[in-house]
TrEMBL record:
Protein family according to the UniProt entry: Belongs to the ABC transporter superfamily.
InterPro entries: AAA+_ATPase, ABC_transporter-like_ATP-bd, ABC_transporter-like_CS, ABC_transporter_ATP-binding, P-loop_NTPase
All copies of domain ABC transporter, residue ranges: 4-231
Domain of life: Bacteria
CDD domains tied to this protein: ABC_drug_resistance_like (cd03264)
Name of the protein this chain belongs to: ABC transporter
Lineage of producing organism: Bacteria, Bacillati, Bacillota, Bacilli, Bacillales
UniProt KW Transport keyword: yes
Record field: transmembrane: none
Coiled-coil regions listed: 106-133
Natural source organism: Priestia filamentosa
Family annotation (PROSITE patterns): ABC_TRANSPORTER_1, ABC_TRANSPORTER_2
UniProt-recorded Gene Ontology molecular function terms: ATP binding; ATP hydrolysis activity
Alphabetic keyword roster: ATP-binding, Coiled coil, Nucleotide-binding, Plasmid, Transport
C-alpha cells in the first residue's frame, strides 16, 4: 500500500510554532480532523508544496522526497475549500483548459475528461456553463479537475461545507470510491465526513498529532467511557463539560456523557465523534 511518511515536521509563523514535530504516515483514505486553528490548513499547504516546512522530511513510500517539488506536484490532485472556475465556459471547456495547463496533450485530455465526467456523474451536465451548476455539481467539477492526470495522492479540503444533505451524501460516496485506488487525504472539522469516507484518521490539536490509526482503534479509546441516561435538567447541568449531547424527552432529557469510571459492561456503542471530543477536550 502506498503511503506518505512525515518525519519531525515543524512550522512556525512569527515565532509561534504552528506544527510541532509531526511524525506519522498517511495511507488509504485518511481523514485529518482537528478543531479550528489546530494547523490543518498549514499541514495541507506543506503537503501540496505551497509552503515548505521549517524542518523535517516528507517522502512518498520512503523514496521520493517533497524536496523534489516538480515530481511531487505531478503526483498530487488538490481540491481546496474555496476555488473558482471560469463562469462563462461549459464544464468540458473548463476541464479541457485546466488539463492543458497541467501539460496533458489535448486529444488525450478529451478522452480522460470523458471518463472523469462519468466517474463524477456529470456526463449529462457537461455542456452546461459553470455559472448554471449547483454547489454540489461545482464540487464534483472540482474533483474532476483534481483527478486530471490520475494523481497518486488526492487532497481535499473541507469537502462538504456548503452542500445540502443529498449532495453531501453523494459527494461522500464519490470520495469513498476514489479512495479505493489512491491515497486520499481529507481535511475537515466535520466528523461525519470522516466517519463516512475514511478508513484511517489523524487528529491534530494545537499543532500536535494526538491520534493516528484506524477508525476502530479510535472508537476503542472511549469504549466503556460513555453513558446514556434520562436525567433532569439540573442533573444534566451538574455534568458540565462531560456532556456530549442532550435530547429533550418530555420533562427530562436523554444525556450522553463521558463517564471516567470505565464500565466494561456498558452497552453504549462509542462513535468517532465521542472519541474525537474525548481526545480534543481532554485537559480543558
Ligand atoms: N500565513 C500565516 N501567518 C501567520 N499565522 C498563520 C498563517 N497561517 C496560519 N497561521 C496561524 O496558524 C494557526 C493554525 O492555522 P491553520 O489555518 O493551519 O489551522 P486550521 O486547523 O486549518 O484551522 P481552521 O479549521 O480554522 O481553518 C492559527 O493560529 C493561524 O492564525
Amino acid at each position: 500500500m502506498e503511503r506518505i511518511c512525515l518525519t519531525e515536521i515543524n512550522k512556525s509563523y512569527q515565532n509561534k510554532q504552528i506544527l510541532k514535530n509531526l511524525t506519522f504516515n498517511i495511507q488509504g483514505s485518511f481523514g485529518l480532523l482537528g478543531p479550528n486553528g489546530a494547523g490543518k490548513t498549514t499541514l495541507m499547504r506543506i503537503l501540496t508544496t505551497l509552503v515548505p516546512p521549517d524542518s523535517g522530511e516528507i517522502k512518498m513510500n520512503d523514496n521520493t522526497s517533497w524536496k523534489d517539488q516538480n515530481i511531487v506536484r505531478s503526483y498530487i490532485g488538490y481540491l481546496p475549500q474555496h476555488f473558482s472556475l471560469y463562469k462563462n465556459v461549459t464544464v468540458v471547456e473548463c476541464l479541457l483548459h485546466l488539463a492543458v495547463l497541467k501539460g496533458i496533450e489535448k486529444s488525450k485530455a478529451k478522452l480522460e475528461i470523458d471518463s472523469l465526467l462519468e466517474e463524477v456523474n456529470l456526463q449529462e451536465h457537461k455542456k452546461k456553463k459553470i455559472k448554471q451548476l449547483s454547489g454540489g455539481m461545482l464540487r464534483r467539477v472540482g474533483i474532476a479537475q483534481a483527478l486530471l492526470g490520475n494523481p497518486r495522492l488526492l487532497i481535499v479540503d473541507e469537502p462538504t461545507v456548503g452542500l445540502d444533505i443529498e449532495e453531501r451524501v453523494r459527494f461522500r460516496n464519490l470520495l469513498r470510491k476514489l479512495g479505493r485506488n489512491r491515497i486520499i487525504l481529507i481535511s475537515t472539522h466535520i466528523v461525519e465526513d470522516v466517519e463516512m469516507t475514511c478508513d484511517y484518521i489523524g487528529i491534530l490539536k494545537e499543532g500536535e498529532i494526538i491520534f493516528t490509526g484506524k477508525k476502530e482503534d479510535l472508537k476503542a479509546i472511549v469504549k466503556g467511557k460513555i453513558k446514556e441516561e434520562l436525567l433532569t435538567m439540573d442533573e444534566a447541568d451538574a455534568l458540565q463539560n462531560q456532556v456530549i449531547s442532550l435530547k429533550q424527552q418530555e420533562d427530562k432529557c436523554l444525556v450522553r456523557y463521558f463517564n471516567e469510571a470505565q464500565d466494561e459492561q456498558s452497552d453504549v456503542s462509542p462513535t468517532i465523534e465521542d472519541a474525537y471530543l474525548y481526545l480534543t477536550k481532554k485537559g480543558e
